DNA sequence: CTGGACGGTGACGTTAGCGGAAGCTAGCTT
DNA sequence: AAGCTAGCTTCCGCTAACGTCACCGTCCAG
């Protein structure tokens, strides 16, 4: 259950390079244990890394992602911290809702283009590849 | 109806700098008319620019966006071109569907965090700011 | 005991995406 | 004529996010 990973394990696993992982650490996004000088990654580290990559896919900068990660690890015993957390989380939610909207709009447009193109081809008797 | 824009008009309007607009032109994403050396933008140019900015918000590179723009301007009289178009459009659709998914997942997680935090605060008798 | 395979630390290189200043021109406007 | 304002080009600068050495230690397998 407490599986550990080496840096190359993780890299291969998530399809990135060790260099990238070290870079994230340099930027303060990760802080794996060390055995001597060698980095050793836990489940939580792995999960964090996955969140990082997700953030990147959504187009966020590493700096943004760093703040984002903090949302997942907060001392919930401190009322004030939770307060702050809530507003930060709501900010992110706002951003993502906007992005969701943008994506959906774009999808609609592209599907329109697809439909129009396909019907254009059918009309010309061209056999249309399936969806 | 055939309104024209200067580069600063457009920049102010879309909240970017003229420099950025010129940069997009350098990268082949725009090709406005010229009056002498001065750039003059049409509605279509403006629309393109908006698409560019949308692509950026979604985290695409300028190179990606360039290809993406071509999807909106194709010679529909050439069957082969339309064929190619359809497959490209479908590719993009696939990408965006994935992104849609990612965004939704992330949103769910954040909403969970929000709910949990809020109920935690309420339980402690703290007055919780509204959504 | 030696050659890989793996891990580590600098430190410099690279690409993308603009920012910003220099130096020039054209068209008002006073 | 002189001074503004806008726009143009050119080029150097800068940040982000890694890639790519170079060089060093370590732990097996042969």
TrEMBL record, chains A, B:
> Which InterPro entries does UniProt cross-reference here?
DNA-bd_dom_put_sf, MerR-type_HTH_dom, MerR_fam
Q: Write down the Pfam families for this protein, in alphabetical order.
A: MerR_1 (PF13411)
Q: Is the keyword DNA-binding assigned to this protein? A: yes
What's in the keyword line of the UniProt record?
A: Coiled coil, DNA-binding
Q: Does the keyword Phosphoprotein apply?
A: no
Q: Which domain of life is it from?
A: Bacteria
A molecular function (GO) held by this record is:
DNA-binding transcription factor activity
* Domain (HTH merR-type): residue spans on this chain: 4-71
Coiled coil feature spans: 79-116
Q: Which CDD domains match?
A: HTH_GnyR
Q: What is this protein called?
A: MerR family DNA-binding transcriptional regulator
Q: What organism is the protein native to? A: Roseospira marina
């Amino acid at each position: 259950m407490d599986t550990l990973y080496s840096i190359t394990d993780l890299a291969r696993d998530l399809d990135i390079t060790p260099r990238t992982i070290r870079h994230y650490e340099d930027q303060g996004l990760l802080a794996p244990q060390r055995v001597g000088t060698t980095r050793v990654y836990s489940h939580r580290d792995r999960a964090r890394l996955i969140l990082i990559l997700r953030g990147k896919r959504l187009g966020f900068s590493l700096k943004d992602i760093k703040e984002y990660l903090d949302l997942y690890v907060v001392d919930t015993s401190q009322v004030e911290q939770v307060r702050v957390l809530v507003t930060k989380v709501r900010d992110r939610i706002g951003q993502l809702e906007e992005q969701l909207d943008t994506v959906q709009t774009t999808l609609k447009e592209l599907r329109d283009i697809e439909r129009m193109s396909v019907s254009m081809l059918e009309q010309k008797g061209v056999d249309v590849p399936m969806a």
